[in-house]
Amino acid sequence: YLLTAGNVIALGLFLSPVPTFVTICKKKAVEQFSPVPYLATLLNCMLWVVYGLPWVHPHSVLVLTINGTGLVIELTYVMLFIVYSQGGKRLRVVVMLAVEVLFVVAVAAFVLTLAHTHERRSLIVGSLCVVFGTMMYVAPLSVMKLVITTKSVEYMPLFLSLASFFNGVCWTIYALIRFDLYITIPNGLGVLFATAQLVLYAVFYKSTKRQLEERRKAETGLTEVVVNGDPHKIRHAAEKGLHPPPEIREM
């Protein structure tokens, strides 16, 4: 039952960025959102899919199905990032995606051709899952740095942090009961990092609301200037160093 609950929560983790990508699609821009957490999660899912293959670790249907689902979802996020990114940022995402795919294909080919027992294959892929599963949870550190610098949690989605926390707790409990080191290490660290994100969210929530409100007022004021004034006159006055008339100055 705990494993099933873990899979349900993991599915929630994979779907938690949906509101973020709805915003990205509406604005047609990724702005300051980072692709790193989604690329890291995609790599983690691909490795767990290899781990769950019958030729690597038999009787791992739940591991295979939930991570196969996560692979499709995370790949969709990464493709949206590519579509709505520009210039160098888009190129970096494409290169990182290509490197990840080539790496997983190489790992699968290596274990299936050179490791001749299930135990050895499970050991090799399981060890890689520990490393890259940890990286998946560490990936949001770049976002946490941005939060501290800007004093804003605008680009650190709350749903993703909550889902990471509950997913990590559930899988850590399961791993401790089963004494499975491969699952304990990355998910235990995941709980710590997700807790740190939630603390940051609580600390900077009010300052974020204040910044968003100030931005909204500034945008509203700019719109009123353009609507109420003659853009040509405003530009002409600015060129001469004159002040705009009262009805334009008032926001």
From TrEMBL:
A Pfam family that the UniProt record links to this protein: MtN3_slv
Signal peptide: none
Compartmental location: Cell membrane
Membrane topology: Multi-pass membrane protein
The keyword Cell membrane is assigned to this record: yes
Record's keyword annotation contains Chaperone: no
InterPro entries in the record: SWEET, SWEET_rpt
Lineage: superkingdom: Eukaryota
Main location: membrane
A GO-annotated cellular component: plasma membrane
Keyword tags: Cell membrane, Membrane, Repeat, Sugar transport, Transmembrane, Transmembrane helix, Transport
GO molecular function, one term: sugar transmembrane transporter activity
Transmembrane segments: 6-24, 36-56, 62-84, 91-116, 122-143, 155-177, 183-205
Subunit structure: Forms homooligomers and/or heterooligomers.
Family the UniProt entry places it in: Belongs to the SWEET sugar transporter family.
Purpose of the protein: Mediates both low-affinity uptake and efflux of sugar across the membrane.
PANTHER family referenced in this protein's UniProt entry, alphabetically: BIDIRECTIONAL SUGAR TRANSPORTER SWEET6-RELATED, RAG1-ACTIVATING PROTEIN 1
Protein name: Bidirectional sugar transporter SWEET
